[in-house]
Design a protein that fits this description.
two-stranded antiparallel sheet, 2 domains, 213 residues, 6 helices, 82% helix, mainly alpha, 2 strands
Length: 213
């Protein structure tokens, strides 16, 4: 009886020792795997994916991105004041509708879109990312559309006055729908111009040397 008990205790001890050894080996393997994963994520992935994505979205210069964010509400307020004090929202809506469907194109609308493209291109050229550029381009559109507040709108069931939440919501939708594509086009244009300028400026110096003519 004592022999069986001692054998059972010995076998249990061996199993416990084997389980402890296996657990320690597994813990070491997991630790090595986590270290390698962390090295990969902070190494090649950080350099090839995360860093370029951050630069593309937010830009290389924080001061330029902050300036674009600060200018966004200022441009929105300036455009809202101009639309409200000169052309009014109803006239602006007629211009946009006539230009969009081609029934009555207005040159001022094309000029405004071109100005937004130039604004987005300048923002991207000076180092701002896609997000600040989009905010900067969408700001004037939001300011123009928010002047819908307080106007009368006629629906099938009758006429109603546009409330502030309705005006802000529709203005945000317009700013996102029209501002994002224009900002993307301007951003790509600005990045292309920036790269072309770098190539021309970088290539002009060495080519002027006599030994390379």
């Amino acid at each position: 009886m004592l022999t069986m008990l001692s054998l059972l205790v010995a076998a249990t001890a061996r199993l416990a020792a084997g389980a402890w050894w296996l657990a320690s080996r597994l813990q070491r393997a997991l630790a090595r795997g986590s270290e390698r994963t962390r090295d990969v994520l902070t190494g090649p992935v950080q350099q090839r994916v995360a860093a370029p994505l951050r630069v593309a979205l937010f830009g290389r210069r924080l001061d330029v991105a902050l300036l674009a964010v600060v200018l966004t509400p200022l441009l929105a307020l300036a455009v809202a004041w101009w639309v409200g004090s000169t052309v009014e929202y109803a006239t602006l809506e007629g211009w946009v509708r006539g230009t969009w469907d081609g029934t009555n194109p207005v040159p001022a609308v094309f000029f405004a879109v071109a100005a937004l493209l130039v604004l987005g291109a300048i923002s991207a050229a000076v180092g701002a990312g896609l997000v600040p550029t989009t905010l900067l381009v969408a700001g004037p559109i939001f300011g123009a559309a928010v002047t819908r507040y307080g106007t009368e709108v006629t629906y099938n069931w009758g006429t109603t006055v546009v409330s502030l939440p309705d005006a802000v919501g529709v203005a945000g939708l317009f700013a996102l729908s029209f501002g994002a594509p224009i900002a993307l086009c301007g951003f790509l244009l600005g990045r292309a111009l920036r790269r072309i300028t770098r190539v021309l400026v970088g290539g002009s110096g060495p080519s002027s040397r006599p030994e390379q003519v």
